[in-house]
Write a structure and sequence with these properties.
There is one protein chain. This protein is an alpha/beta fold. It has one domain: 3-Layer(aba) Sandwich (Rossmann fold). 28% of the residues lie in helices and 24% in strands. It is built from three helices and six strands. The chain has a six-stranded mixed beta sheet with strand order 1-2-4-3-5-6, sandwiched between helices. Strand 3, helix 1 and strand 4 form a beta-alpha-beta unit. The radius of gyration is 12 Å and the shape is globular.
Length: 105
């Protein structure tokens, strides 16, 4: 099951009430409801996955940063171009790169 929020993020609900929040950034030619995002949801965690524009890098970073600031994920996962997006996320308190668990697939 998924819902779409006001930030244009899709939220895929895992089965665990105490599951971690995973923020997933899709690749350039992919989408928020990709097979990778759906697979992550089967792990029992809550997946937040925004629609990232493919033609505007600055807008992509803005969307990604807003999702990080609002959802404060436990883990960030980036696939291909989404990995590059994840590496550019800033820590809102120090304006430095966010030091969260990150996996690039």
């Amino acid at each position: 099951m998924f819902v779409r929020d006001v930030l244009q993020c899709y939220i895929l609900f895992g089965g665990l009430l105490k599951g971690k929040t995973i923020l997933f950034f899709h690749g350039l030619e992919s989408s928020p409801l990709s097979e990778k995002a759906k697979f992550l949801a089967t792990t029992g965690h809550h997946i937040v996955t925004p629609w990232l524009p493919s033609d505007d890098w600055e807008e992509t970073l803005k969307v990604a940063q807003e999702c990080v600031d609002v959802y404060k994920p436990d883990i960030i996962v980036g696939s291909s171009r989404g990995g590059a997006v994840a590496l550019n996320i800033k820590n809102e308190k120090k304006n430095s790169v966010l030091k969260k668990k990150m996996m690039i697939v």
